[in-house]
UniProtKB/TrEMBL annotation, chain A:
Organism for this UniProt entry: Mustela putorius furo
Ranges of compositional bias, category Polar residues: 498-508
A single BP term in Gene Ontology: reciprocal meiotic recombination
Listed InterPro entries: TopoVIB-like (IPR028040)
Gene responsible for this protein: CUNH11orf80
Name of the featured protein: Type 2 DNA topoisomerase 6 subunit B-like isoform X4
TrEMBL record, chain B:
Catalyzed reactions per annotation: ATP-dependent breakage, passage and rejoining of double-stranded DNA
Main location: nucleus
Family annotation (InterPro entries): Meiosis_Spo11 (IPR004084), Meiotic_Spo11 (IPR013048), Spo11/TopoVI_A (IPR002815), Spo11/TopoVI_A_N (IPR013049), Spo11/TopoVI_A_sf (IPR036078), TOPRIM_Topo6A/Spo11 (IPR034136), WH-like_DNA-bd_sf (IPR036388)
Quaternary state and interactors: Heterotetramer of SPO11 and 2 TOP6BL chains. Interacts with TOP6BL.
Protein name per its UniProtKB record: Meiotic recombination protein SPO11
Cellular component terms per the entry's GO annotation: chromosome, telomeric region; nuclear chromosome
Species this protein is from: Mustela putorius furo (European domestic ferret)
GO biological process: double-strand break repair involved in meiotic recombination; male meiosis I; meiotic DNA double-strand break formation; meiotic DNA double-strand break processing; meiotic telomere clustering; oogenesis; ovarian follicle development; protein localization to chromosome
GO terms, molecular function: ATP binding; DNA binding; DNA topoisomerase type II (double strand cut, ATP-hydrolyzing) activity; metal ion binding
Keyword list, A-Z: DNA-binding, Isomerase, Magnesium, Meiosis, Metal-binding, Nucleus, Topoisomerase
Catalytic center residues: 138
Length: 537, 396
């Protein structure tokens, strides 16, 4: 696929890699921080029917792109996008101001294309998907993404920390790291001149946290796999041809699902329109046998698997080399992973074992809890209904504002469950303290790593699962942030897997979650205008 | 009382009578029996009201959106135990507690089981029926898991409500036996006439309910083991030493056996002696009768008989009687640990003679069962050892 989306994504990747390399020597372990503005402004083409003339602008705030050699940048970007028809323009001195775009900076590049409304819509969704994946690993990079079609504007902000009062429910996932493994390069790729080594670190987690629905027995219904390359950049774009993910077509190539009494099939139901955050690979549970609790009426849980491929070298890594690695992984990841099949399989399996062990334990604990509460409630009911003391019964009914013992029983049951669902789980260190500042990552304990800076509470829209995916993925960037920033810190950054969930503390609600929902809905509602462009308002 | 006078002549009991006199004098000096400060018998309405009060507290917590919890005294913690010579081991007035929470995975099951048993007690009291702990366990053995869980929760409830188990209409199964000069009426009117023959009577389930106790026994002998008790029955010990009463708890005594011993002491104030093996386990069992147990310390006033004396088998008897060494058994590691533990208990400090006997045992690292006396002669125990001990005051 060639289009604006690919261009924007490649440019962003290039910029971030450059940025990483520039900052690697100065602030090790620090998260990249800055702001980028992407805007797409489309108007009905004067020359072609049913076509929009779209001007895409990428601008940055601050001087984060100091050191960028513009001519070289343009030339390299153009070479990366051979099929891209538009010409990239650079305006570094003058600014092209638009009142809808905030934080316009001296750095700005623009390109113009003509494309169909449907293509523009898809491009927009692809870019958003890409931005979502980036901010999970780089929460301090803020993206302002706006789309204006025939005067109708929608804006979305990615990566802005949102703080609110504490929620009692856990809005996070709790990734479990597998041990990093070195990846072997296939023989036919040895000559590509990599002067370092590739490592893979898997992380697995369940989404949502069992605490979110503490009174439900959740089954695993799907698996989502996300692939990240060096510098914490997503390896692939949705909708692209995927040689990168060929190896995952065999669902059991790396993971023994029978061990968990699960039968997985590749999921083809990936809809960019519907899913805010599209995984790179998706599996669906076909059937599950054995002792896994099945409650087909309950919401299924998604097993998330993040595969982080990183590049380490004893020498300072040049941007070009990093870019080459990224490109290599984009096209040859399957072959590389297959070359190290056994090691990769072991590492992934360890992470999965731990993540699912928690699930099994959570299910057992939940059953135990529910059974005990049921006994407690029934016992109380037995005494209250059997009592001959009028005053005692009256006091009990009044306490729960019930008119009769039947209502009393219902309210008692509900009250008990409401109160006790915020119990602490041994494997989930979710805290309910009110916190307004990001916390440090207890596991990594790196001064510059700020944990939980982007905790968002899941929205209540139909995209609940994806929202939680998004939030939960923010957690994983903590594991990357201490490892990724400096490629020369290979050994130190290989964190050991722990059995316990690497759960940072604190959970927060976000009013922004609702804002995102409403913006998304508004954007979707604009699609019909794109598909059927009428006269300009 | 019309018992056939088969026992020794009256002079035989002189020392015993003197001992009894001294015990009575001590009682008078001490101002009589201390009033039951622990649990006390409660009426049905009190029990029901107590349980309703507990339930009300839970519902109030729930209404306030707080997870309810039980606060239970730590019955089995030595730090909550104090020792009083006249009572034995009892719970301290300000003792540590623990919370059984409903919102904790670790304790939610116990929270639920406490409520379950409370509801069962409620029904028993309302219907004026009784059940044993075993009955309660079998109402839902899968839920409870094992008998110990039920037993502990019942004790916790008894301690929490400050009411004895009998007031909760829960009976403990008796395993003890009685023999000798004793008659009484059970609560349901059954006349019980313990005999001096070769058969014994089971300790009744409802000790609080027995009345019209009649005896002219000169002493009460607590026998640790059933084997020894049966041996004495076979040897017609009760006849030969008549008038007397014998009781056995068949090892660690159940609640009813302890209650019976206490009741006999409270009613008749006759000398009470313990006949236990000369080993740490036997000494501990004797201490349970005399001073009480850790687990039941909250009911100490109803269960302990501090006036009990150690009759035999004393470690010093082993050497004195030249009991063959090959009949003695070396102390095991567990024995030594238990002996050390008993020596550290607060009540040993006011029993210097007991301490000395235990030190003899610790030094020799040997123990002996009562059956070791059969190596001297088969009926040495009933014909020589015990009569001499009783006649000449060989107790400590």
């Amino acid at each position: 696929m060639e289009g604006s989306a690919v261009a924007v994504c490649e440019i962003l990747k290039y910029l971030i890699i450059h940025w990483k390399c520039e900052t690697a020597g100065t602030s090790k372990g620090a998260l990249l921080e800055g702001q980028l503005v992407i805007s797409m402004e489309a108007l009905n083409s004067k020359h072609q029917e049913n076509t929009l003339h779209c001007v895409t602008t990428i601008a940055s705030a601050g001087s984060i792109y100091g050191g960028l050699v513009l001519k070289k940048f343009l030339k390299e970007i153009q070479s990366l996008l051979p099929g891209f028809s538009a010409k990239l323009n650079w305006t570094s001195e003058e600014a092209s101001y638009s009142q809808d775009i905030s934080g316009v900076t001296p750095f700005q590049m623009i390109f113009e294309v003509d494309e169909k409304p449907r293509t523009l819509m898809t491009d927009s969704l692809v870019i958003k998907n890409f931005l979502h994946k980036i901010v999970m690993v780089h929460p301090k990079i803020k993206f302002n993404f706006s789309v204006k079609v025939n005067g109708v504007l929608s804006v979305e902000v990615f990566g802005k920390p949102k703080f609110a009062t504490a929620e009692l429910l856990c809005s996070r996932i709790h990734p479990v790291l597998g041990h990093p493994v070195m990846l072997f390069i296939p023989d036919d790729m040895v000559g590509m001149g990599l002067l370092g080594e590739l490592t893979l670190t898997p992380a697995a987690a369940l989404c949502p946290c069992p605490e979110v629905f503490p009174n439900q027995l959740n089954r695993i219904s799907s698996v989502s796999i996300f692939l990240y390359g060096p510098s914490g950049l997503p390896l692939i774009l949705p909708g692209q041809e995927q040689p990168t993910t060929t190896v995952f077509k065999d669902t059991s190539y790396f993971i023994d699902w029978k061990k968990y009494h699960l039968c997985m099939v590749p999921s083809l139901d990936l809809n960019l329109d519907r899913d805010l955050l599209l995984p790179d690979v998706s599996y669906q549970v076909e059937s599950s046998v054995g002792d896994q609790s099945q409650n087909m009426d309950s919401q299924g849980q998604t097993l998330l698997l993040f595969l982080f491929v990183d590049f380490h070298s004893r020498f300072p890594v040049q941007q070009t080399e990093l870019w080459r690695v990224h490109t290599l992984l984009t096209t040859h990841l399957s072959a590389i992973l297959m070359e190290s099949h056994s090691a990769v399989q072991d590492s992934i399996q360890v992470a999965m074992d731990q993540a699912l062990e928690q699930h099994h334990q959570a299910t057992k604990d939940l059953q135990k809890f529910q059974a005990s509460l049921s006994v407690a409630v029934n016992s109380i009911m037995s005494i209250v209904t059997g009592s001959t003391s009028n005053s005692f019964r009256k006091i009990c009914l009044q306490a729960l504002q019930a008119v009769d013992t039947q209502e009393f029983g219902t309210k008692l049951h509900k009250s008990f469950h409401d109160i006790t669902r915020h119990r602490s789980l041994p494997y989930c260190s979710c805290e309910t303290k009110q916190q307004l500042l990001p916390e440090e990552n207890a596991e990594e304990n790196t001064e510059d790593v700020q944990e939980n800076s982007l905790e968002l509470l899941a929205g209540t829209s139909g995209q609940v699962e994806n929202k939680r995916l998004q939030q939960g993925l923010e957690e994983t960037r903590a594991f990357l942030s201490a490892r990724g920033p400096s490629q020369s810190e290979a050994a130190a950054c290989r964190t050991k897997p722990t059995a316990a969930s690497l759960t940072p503390s604190g959970s927060r609600a976000s009013p922004g979650g609702d804002l995102e929902d409403s913006l998304w809905q508004r954007e979707v509602s604009n699609l019909s205008e794109w598909l059927n462009p009428g006269p300009e308002p | 009382m019309a018992f056939a006078p088969m026992g020794p002549e009256a002079s035989f009991f002189e020392v015993l009578d003197q001992h009894r006199a001294s015990l009575l004098a001590a009682l008078r000096r001490g101002g009589g029996e201390p009033a039951g400060r622990g649990t006390r018998l409660a009426s049905s309405s009190e029990v029901l009201g107590s349980i309703e009060s507990v339930i009300q507290g839970i519902i109030t917590s729930v209404a306030r959106n707080e997870a309810p919890a039980f606060t239970i005294d730590n019955r089995s913690s030595w730090e909550n135990i104090k020792f009083e010579d006249s009572v034995g081991l009892q719970m301290a007035s300000h003792c540590t507690t623990r919370k059984i929470k409903s919102d904790s995975l670790k304790s939610v099951k116990k929270f639920a089981l406490i409520l379950k048993i409370l509801s069962m007690i409620y029904k028993l009291v309302q219907s004026n029926t009784y059940a044993t702990k075993r009955d309660i366990y079998y109402t839902d053995s899968q839920l409870f898991g094992n008998q110990t869980v039920v037993d502990n929760i019942i004790n916790d409830i008894s301690c929490m409500l400050k009411m004895p188990r009998i007031s909760l209409h829960i009976l403990s199964t008796s395993k003890g036996l009685i023999a000798g000069n004793l008659r009484y009426l059970e609560e349901d009117g059954t006349r019980v006439h313990c005999t001096c023959g070769s058969t014994a009577v089971a300790v009744p389930s409802n000790i609080q309910g027995i009345r019209n106790l009649i005896t002219d026994a000169k002493f009460l002998l607590i026998v640790e083991k059933d084997a020894t008790f049966q041996r004495l029955l076979d040897d017609s010990f009760c006849n030969r030493m008549s008038p007397c009463i014998m009781v056995t708890g068949k090892g660690v005594p159940d609640l009813n056996t302890r209650l019976l011993v206490k009741k006999l002491w409270d009613t008749f104030h006759i000398p009470v002696f313990a006949l236990v093996d000369a080993d740490p386990h036997g000494i501990e069992i004797m201490c349970i009768y005399k001073y009480g147990s850790l687990a039941m310390s909250f009911e100490a006033h109803n269960l302990t008989v501090p006036a009990i004396r150690w009759l035999g088998l004393l470690p010093s008897d082993i050497k004195r009687l030249n009991i063959p060494r090959d009949t003695l058994i070396p102390l095991t590691k567990q024995d030594q640990m238990k002996l050390e533990s008993v020596l550290k208990r607060p009540y040993v400090t006011c029993q210097p003679f007991w301490r000395k006997e235990m030190e003899i045992m610790a030094d020799s690292k040997l123990k002996a069962e009562i059956q070791a006396l059969t190596f001297l002669s088969s009926d040495y125990l009933s014909r020589v050892y015990l009569p001499n001990k009783l006649k000449f005051g060989g107790w400590i």
